[in-house]
Design a protein that fits this description.
- With 476 residues, this protein is an alpha+beta fold.
- It has 16 helices and 19 strands.
- The strands form five sheets. Strands 8, 9, 10, 11 and 12 form a five-stranded antiparallel beta sheet that branches. Strands 15-19-18-17-16 form a five-stranded antiparallel beta sheet, with no helix packed on it. Strands 5-6-1-7 form a four-stranded antiparallel beta sheet.
- Helix 13 packs antiparallel against helix 14.
- About 4% of the residues have low confidence.
Length: 476
Amino acid sequence: MLWLYLWLPRLQLDTQAPDDPGPVAVVDERDNRVVQMNEPASREGITLGMGLATAAALCRDVQLLPYQSALEIRRLEELAHGLYDISGDISLDPPCGLWLGASRMVKYHNGFDNYCKKIKHFLSCRKLSMQVASGFTPLAAKLLAHSPEVPLDPCPEKLRQVIRGCPLSATELPEQTQTHLQRLGIKTLDGLLVIPPKDLSRRFDRPLAEYVGRLVGHLPHPLPFYQPPDYFRQHRELPCELESSDQLAPWVKRLLDELEAFLHHRDRVVERVELALQLRNRDPLSLTIGAARGESRAERWQPLVQLTLERHPLEAPVCGLTLTARTLLPRPGQSEDLLNERHGAAMAPAQLVALLQARLGADRVRSLRVAEDFRPLRANIESCPLESSKPPSNRRSDDAAQPAPPALRPAFLLADPQVYSQPLEIIEGPERITTGWWDGEPQVRDYYIARNAQGQWCWAFREPNRPGWFLQGYFA
């Protein structure tokens, strides 16, 4: 079977470092030595394994990050989640490696080269440093990813030839074992592979024999395969504490880009995302951002998230971000709104509603829809924006009956009708409304469209048992 191994030597650094950083190095606090560094730090003379004091002396401006294995493992899981659309057999090799079973994927992606290009493109889009190698066993692929040549070839014979020339330092053998082999004159794997397996077991300890057996495929090497969850969740630890929504914007964009890629591969959209902000010495701040219609594009989610952040002042600096999208919905068909946007038309209603909700809060953006009640103050009820209203239930079974045209109603209603004693010019009416007998609040009124002395168009009514006119509202 053919395998790929993805070695990500600067996984934490690539995950945490800003887009345009100065010298940055990751230091393992157990021994205060540099384990990862970027190019600016390397140009200043900082090297892997260098002590903290020496690195700080060489470059006073170097930004030091504590090594976090948990962060790298979490990032590996996120990458495996994204790669699952390209390669089905994925196994994590913490803290900074992934195995990919390539044999079944080569045909699916129309060749080994196309398959590898997609893998590298996925990693490059996330600005990850990588060394990708192939091998006929999992250990062989990992060994070659750490070797000077880093071959990426589907031919087993070529790979075996490269393995024979690999130095012992590229293996996972303990330093004590490597030193012992070098004293015996064995400096490359070729010196080990020429020894028959039985002699190898007799002359050396068991771990060495098992390593060589798994390397060449004589012994099985079972791996646990990754099973992706059915939702999106990604976390980012920030390289430094941030105190404003503007500073958080590029980090939010990274997470939204990941979400867009995740939804694109599944042909899905989401109506709601959850953003959790890890605050210094405080409980996390959890924000729920919704869209009036399902959305997948990062460029659409970005302003909604930013507007929501602006409505929630930060009570403490932010140390990390977590973006979650749980309910995935089928992508709707292409709509007129989408076609209009391509031709530079006005903002789609769903997009406008989402922006208003992000700015004002979801509970402050409402729509009105018609209710089955003729009383003016009960004829409309609040509903969610763009919610399709149910058609009124048919109280007649006569299918041939044609619906009556809608009656003219004023744009402005008074909460309490006012007694009106001035002259009115009747324009239209009366319209008898008899209703409310079923709930103990009966109304019998004759409504008129009228014009007052000031030229205003009014909606006024009279009641059989009460003298005079009552003003209900004004027409716009």
